[in-house]
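Hi team,

Below is the intake form for Transcriptional regulator, HxlR family from Paracoccus seriniphilus. Please confirm the fields before the structure is written into the shared record.

FORM ID: S-0412
PROTEIN: Transcriptional regulator, HxlR family
ORGANISM: Paracoccus seriniphilus
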Amino acid sequence: MARKYDWRTGSNVEATLSVIGGRWKPVILCNLLVSRLRFGELCRNMPNATQRMITLQLRELEADGVIRRHVYAEVPPRVEYELTEFGRSLEPVLSVMREWGMAFKKRKLSEAVDNAPAS
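The structure came back. Fields below:
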């Protein structure tokens, strides 16, 4: 997929975000850290994402060499996705993102409880 990123002059953080940036790519990658998954399994694990969006994100991740797509010659066709070795190198980044997200959700939940009207 074509992106507006200049590999010669862009920053390293910008390079990382050009590959894993967006709302759904990190979620897809976290799902694939656990195991190889079929498209339908990814969709079930991400009910707030449309199938079209998941498809587009998977194509970009595959084009960047982060995931691998396996197509099996069966009827109906079976397609599975897994992280490449290069994609697995993102595990520390994704783990930190997951931990930060848990802390953020806990903080927001605590704020909501503290600001709830007394009954």
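SUMMARY LINE: The chain has one domain: 12-114.

Thanks, M.
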